[in-house]
């Protein structure tokens, strides 16, 4: 070995060292030996293994991590495509997140050989995957991948009621109407979560293929906070049609108000938080146009509206303007509303309506002191109005927000 001179004073010293018997060469050799000894071989001379058992293992991990889809893949489907596997080892960590940092939950199973997500992915979204596995000797192997899900051509959304932040009555179901008919209801249900605080069992029920309602067994307790989590983005609701919503909304249950209309007695008793606060004379459906029996929920409020028989199958039998204090009870046109065209003697004495429940009132809601105004001002969306002793059938649960007219066992039964 020869040590080449370098420029400057060090070079002169290097040349002097070589003339004096190669002491610098020996020193350099000693340094090299020392560096070799510190390299972790422990004198084994093999360059492999753990040496004396105290050094660092330099042997490569036998574990093989595979990520599907492969790094850089585009147009990935949202269900069933993502998985991470480990060969000759076990997965110890799998982290998946979208471009905003939102994590994708999943589970390692089959003894550490596979990881899969708990739910579908969102569409048109970029994801990163970082996975680590270790072999039988504890040596780690890692892999990273990025992929992007496809952009669907056909989509659907769910229109929900009540609205976010709304305070509603104890009878208010959570109702979702979809913009397209659903042929895979199980996939859609799995993407919807409804919870209550305080907790209570909540079940969903389908009406046809485009409406899904949720309710507890009995009316909500006042003060309950209900939360809806919609994770429809990427769900295939029907072949080739995917959801595009991912949002959370919440509403609160206010005080309890349940009003019972007795069509035979022609009265309505208003019960607030378990206490009767007022009995009001009413008029309900005439003998030829009786009022439905059953539990009905107020779904709309209109201080003044127009009622035309053409819109609900009564032809030109009536067209009434400036109808005051109207609150909808059914999709088919049942309202509880103010009535200014019948004489005062009618209320509490005769049933003369086309199926609605009428309370004495003034035209255009101008008089704030009428029975109808009193009831309107004290009612909110989600309050319950029960009609009994009418010579009509019970209202169907999907005719309005009237889920309570179905037995609980039937409501939660598989469909």
Question: Notable features of this structure?
Answer:
Immunoglobulin-like; elongated; 11% helix; four-stranded antiparallel β-sheet; L,D-transpeptidase catalytic domain-like; LD-transpeptidase; 415 residues; 3 domains; five-stranded mixed β-sheet; mainly beta; disordered N terminus
Describe the protein.
The protein is mainly beta and 415 residues long. The protein has 3 domains: 64-148, Immunoglobulin-like (Sandwich); 155-253, Immunoglobulin-like (Sandwich), CATH 2.60.40.3710; 257-405, Beta Barrel (L,D-transpeptidase catalytic domain-like), CATH 2.40.440. 11% of the residues lie in helices and 37% in strands. The strands form 7 sheets. The chain has a 5-stranded mixed beta sheet with strand order 21-20-19-27-22, with no helix packed on it. A 4-stranded antiparallel beta sheet has the order 1-2-5-4, with no helix packed on it. Strands 9-11-14-13 form a 4-stranded antiparallel beta sheet, with no helix packed on it. Pfam families: Big_10, YkuD. This is Ig-like domain-containing protein. Keywords: Acyltransferase, Cell shape, Cell wall biogenesis/degradation, Peptidoglycan synthesis, Signal, Transferase.
Largest sheet: 5 strands, mixed
Question: How much β-strand is present in the residues?
Answer: 35-45%
Largest beta sheet: strand ordering: 21-20-19-27-22
Helix content: 10-25%
Write down how many β-strands occur, each being a DSSP E stretch of 2 or more residues.
27
Principal-axes shape call: elongated
Q: Overall mean pLDDT score?
A: 89
Question: Please, what is the CATH homologous superfamily of the largest domain?
Answer: L,D-transpeptidase catalytic domain-like
The tally of structural domains comes to: 3
| First-to-last CA distance | 88 Å
CA gyration radius, whole angstroms: 37 Å
**CATH architecture descriptor name of the largest domain:** Beta Barrel
The SS-based structural class is mainly beta
Keywords: Acyltransferase, Cell shape, Cell wall biogenesis/degradation, Peptidoglycan synthesis, Signal, Transferase
Organism: Streptomyces pathocidini
Pathway: Cell wall biogenesis; peptidoglycan biosynthesis
Pfam families: Big_10 (PF17964), YkuD (PF03734)
């Amino acid at each position: 070995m020869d040590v080449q001179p370098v420029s400057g004073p060090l070079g002169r010293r290097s040349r002097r060292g070589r003339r004096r018997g190669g002491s610098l060469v020996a020193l350099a050799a000693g340094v090299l030996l020392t560096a070799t000894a510190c390299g972790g071989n422990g004198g084994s001379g093999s360059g492999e293994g753990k040496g004396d058992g105290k050094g660092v293992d330099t042997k490569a991990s036998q574990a093989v991590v595979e990520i599907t889809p492969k790094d850089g893949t585009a147009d990935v489907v949202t269900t069933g495509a993502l998985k991470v596997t480990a060969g000759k080892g076990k997965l110890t960590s799998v982290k998946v997140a979208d471009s905003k940092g939102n994590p994708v939950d999943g589970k390692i199973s089959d003894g550490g050989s596979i990881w899969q997500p708990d739910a579908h992915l969102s569409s048109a979204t970029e994801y990163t995957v970082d996975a680590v596995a270790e072999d039988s000797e504890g040596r780690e192997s890692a892999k990273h991948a990025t992929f992007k899900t496809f952009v669907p051509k056909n989509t659907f959304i769910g229109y929900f009621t009540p609205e976010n932040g709304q305070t509603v009555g104890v009878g208010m179901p959570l109702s979702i109407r979809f913009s397209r008919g659903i042929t895979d209801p199980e996939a859609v249900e799995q993407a919807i979560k409804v919870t209550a605080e305080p907790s209570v069992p909540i079940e969903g029920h389908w009406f046809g293929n485009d409406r899904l309602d949720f309710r507890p067994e009995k009316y909500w307790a006042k003060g309950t906070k209900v939360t809806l989590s919609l994770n429809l983005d990427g769900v295939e609701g029907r072949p080739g049609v995917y959801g595009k919503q991912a949002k959370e909304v919440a509403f609160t249950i206010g005080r309890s108000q349940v009003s019972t209309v007795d069509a035979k007695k022609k009265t309505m008793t208003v019960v607030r938080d378990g206490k009767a606060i007022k009995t009001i004379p009413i008029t309900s459906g005439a003998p030829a146009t009786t009022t439905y029996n059953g539990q009905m929920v107020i779904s709309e409020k209109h201080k003044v509206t127009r009622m035309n028989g053409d819109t609900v199958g009564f032809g030109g039998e009536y067209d009434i303007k400036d109808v005051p204090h109207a609150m909808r009870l059914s999709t088919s046109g049942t309202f509880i509303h103010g009535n200014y065209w019948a004489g005062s003697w009618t209320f509490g004495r005769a049933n003369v309506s086309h199926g609605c429940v009428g309370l004495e009132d003034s035209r255009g809601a101008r008089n704030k002191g009428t029975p109808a105004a009193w009831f309107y001002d004290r009612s909110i969306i989600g309050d319950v109005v029960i009609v009994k002793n009418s010579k009509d059938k019970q209202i169907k649960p999907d005719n309005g927000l009237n889920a309570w007219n179905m037995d609980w066992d039937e409501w939660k039964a598989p469909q």
